[in-house]
Amino acid sequence: MIKVYLAAFPMLYEGEDIEVLYRVFQDDILVKKDEFYLEYVKPAVVGLHAVLAVLYKLEEFKEEEITIMINDSALNEIIKGSCTTKNGDVLKMASKVKKQITKFSNLSFANVTKDKGALTKWKEIIED
User: Fold this and answer.
1) CA–CA separation, 114 and 89 (whole Å)
2) What is the pLDDT of residue 14?
3) Is this structure's pTM higher than 0.85?
4) Per-domain boundaries in the chain
5) Of 37, 91, 96, 111, which is most buried with the most CB atoms under 10 A?
6) Which CATH architecture has domain 2-127?
């Protein structure tokens, strides 16, 4: 089983890059640790852009069971399809992400926002 801890941080000023951090664990062993930057996008789609970029980087694991751990309730709703937004940019990016998700045999997302223990672990792993 693969667990991916993902975080995306928009910079404070418009036009600045987005920092994306992710850690990949296979059977509780760290196998990949990376951070990279994406070009500026509107804050509403930062999480979706980060997910899409990381999914491209995870293609080598696409036949395995993968859980992506996120700390973003809005992103979780968009991915689950329960978001009622009418924002065209969000809907367009959500469509791209869902198309990429279909390439994976067993991919799921877990939102750690409401679970104090899971959130603490997510923070420790992302900050390491």
Assistant:
1) 27
2) 67
3) yes
4) 2-127
5) 111
6) 2-Layer Sandwich (3.30)
